[in-house]
Amino acid sequence: xxxxxxxxxxxxxxxxxxxxxxxxxxxxxxxxxxxxxxxxxxxxxxxxxxxxxxxxxxxxxxxxxxxxxxxxxxxxxxxxxxxxxxxxxxxxxxxxxxxxxxxxxxxxxxxxxxxxxxxxxxxxxxxxxxxxxxxxxxxxxxxxxxxxxxxxxxxxxxxxxxxxxxxxxxxxxxxxxxxxxxxxxxxxxxxxxxxxxxxxxxxxxxxxxxxxxxxxxxxxxxxxxxxxxxxxxxxxxxxxxxxxxxxxxxxxxxxxxxxxxxxxxxxxxxxxxxxxxxxxxxxxxxxxxxxxxxxxxxxxxxxxxxxxxxxxxxxxxxxxxxxxxxxxxxxxxxxxxxxxxxxxxxxxxxxxxxxxxxxxxxxxxxxxxxxxxxxxxxxxxxxxxxxxxxxxxxxxxxxxxxxxxxxxxxxxxxxxxxxxxxxxxxxx
Length: 428
Prior knowledge:
eight-stranded mixed β-sheet; 15 helices; Rossmann fold; three-stranded antiparallel β-sheet; alpha/beta; Outer Surface Protein A, domain 3
């Protein structure tokens, strides 16, 4: 990690203070660092007496430079957010295989579209908010992206009848009684927007195409997957339901009303009551947060569900594509005992953790150090088996020659395959 001291007067320092920190600076300082007149004409700066301040925010993200509205500009309904946790999560969950056509719906500042432009021949990005499209267009220029087409319109309307190999969507999924912000509030009742996007996305996918969509939904405590499964059934897609966690109504409302509590404390109680009345009106007991990954595929489709710890989430493209490939294989098995004839290898990025009390082994946990960062507890026999899976021998030759032991091991091996800890064949 490299550190750099911000020296007063340097153009870099002035840029950071203006466009990243949002500070107000003397116009003379800005003029010494930049072509002030040009930035004023572009609308990037505004004057206040002898001072200037930026009208937008510029933030580096990896090797991208992304413009958005300033953090203090959130009173405008068309306010465009910058880099925030959901957009980073969606970027990590998106498959990065080479594709011909990609679509980003509800593009906002355009980050998902810019990332897709690196492995797609062409990218189409849509948004109902013209201001968002202006920022996406600016960010394409700032980052030298030339294969991006922007279209104004609601959700999938601008691309009706077209097909894509990749679809990403971070919709305004917040279950809210308000229609204050385009990036947050859909104006549709309850979790309708998440359901509609999930139900319509398959029609936009070519055979083999993937959709990666962030969602929020109402559910009964203890049954987070119940509402999601009907959304994906009969859509001609394999579906992976990923669950990040849930909030009760008070926590959900309070979290989204934090700016009100900070800036308008006298209005907070009334707004909170409004949100809670709205949620009670739908009988909402819990609000789930997660993602749905769809793959268009002919034939009998499968659906699976898993919990994901966002604190362990890394770039997951390779892991996700591996899991889809492995799930296809597992679904094709007529008999689980066929696993015994296959050769399996443990993926490279993993580690085993043992917990001991004095000399007694209490627990063994296998952790994936890539992708979705899954962790799974191993029983004594599986913990002894896992290091032997090196891709050199069929499973039946690795296990003891006891049919009872072999049969007992198969569910554990299957689960390690499902989670992406094992691959078929020799390690790459």
